[in-house]
Specification:
Blueprint (H helix, E strand, L loop, with lengths): L4 E5 L4 E6 L10 H15 L6 E6 L3 E3 L4 H9 L2 H19 L5 E5 L2 E3 L1 H7 L3 E5 L3 E3 L14 H9 L1 H10 L2 E3 H6 L5 E3 L4 H13 L3 H11 L7 H16 L2 H11 L10
Parallel strand pairs: 2-3, 3-5, 4-6, 5-7, 6-8, 7-10
Antiparallel strand pairs: 1-2, 8-9
């Protein structure tokens, strides 16, 4: 079977992973999640990585679960269904576990599991004609799928999250922006340029500092204030000991743009 994802890396250290099943609107199946896990592993193993972009080929980001894969779940027993769902969850964990900042470039519609995949990234840039739909209920499914309820609870709170997944909400790009589900909305005809500009800003940041931000925010609800302050001290001490801090301070004193090298 041909690869369902492509993976490219540019000279800035930006990795771009693209779902490439445009004939089925980049619907997700077990192979897609296997390839996604592998691609994220390569990003994580790249010491010079600065950011990862996840996007779709064609008119959609991802339509969610592939109908054939959903039929397989229906035809199998509960043990099979749970194993396949956990495999998809490993794909979500692979994205969320990356130390570098991640960007979902939502070039077109993202539904169901595709919407959850987009929410698992740190930032979401959305084309103005795209839609974000949590349509599990329309298929008789729970919204408790591929992290959708977890991310929605984090972004909009439990009351709004319950409303979204229970009623099968579909958001336009502007509605998604107003709800706090996406970072930025950009015209479709300028989408690639806008995404590249946003990612270029990320790539120009000090890598240790950016990774430290992710470490500090991950699992923050499970730490006491004292524990969190200890973690912040360790993260900041690492940043202070870096060449990037020396460069940043010198650049500030001399009123120039810093060039961060990740050391």
């Amino acid at each position: 079977m041909p690869d369902l994802l492509s993976h490219e890396r540019d000279d800035r250290g930006v990795h771009t992973i693209t779902f490439r099943r445009p004939e089925v609107r980049n619907a997700l199946n077990p192979q897609a999640f296997t390839e996604l896990i592998g691609a994220c592993g390569k990003v994580g193993a790249d010491p010079a990585a600065r950011a990862m972009v996840l996007t779709g080929k064609g008119v959609a980001f991802s339509a969610g679960g592939d109908f054939d894969a959903l039929q397989d779940l229906l035809d199998g027993d509960r043990r099979y269904a749970e194993a396949e769902l956990r495999h998809a969850n490993d794909g979500i964990l692979a994205i969320a576990g990356l130390e570098v900042p991640t960007v979902a470039a939502v070039n077109g519609d993202a539904y169901g599991g595709g919407a959850a995949v987009a929410l698992s990234c740190d930032f979401r840039i959305m084309g103005d004609g795209a839609r974000l739909g949590f349509v599990f209920a329309r298929l008789g499914l729970s919204g408790a799928d591929t992290g959708a309820t977890w991310w929605l609870n984090r972004l909009v709170g439990p009351v709004r999250a319950m409303e979204i997944v229970t009623l099968g909400a579909v958001y336009s790009a502007e509605e998604a922006l107003a709800a706090g589900l996406v970072t930025e909305v950009t015209p479709a005809d300028d989408f690639a340029t806008a995404v590249d500009g946003f990612v270029d800003r990320l790539a120009g940041l000090a890598p240790l500092a950016t990774r430290g931000n992710k470490r500090a925010l991950a699992g923050i609800g499970q730490r006491t204030l004292a524990e969190h302050l200890d973690l912040e001290a360790a993260i900041q001490a690492e940043a202070i000991s870096s060449g990037d801090f020396r460069e940043g301070l010198d650049a500030a004193r001399n009123k120039r743009q810093p060039t961060f090298r990740g050391n």
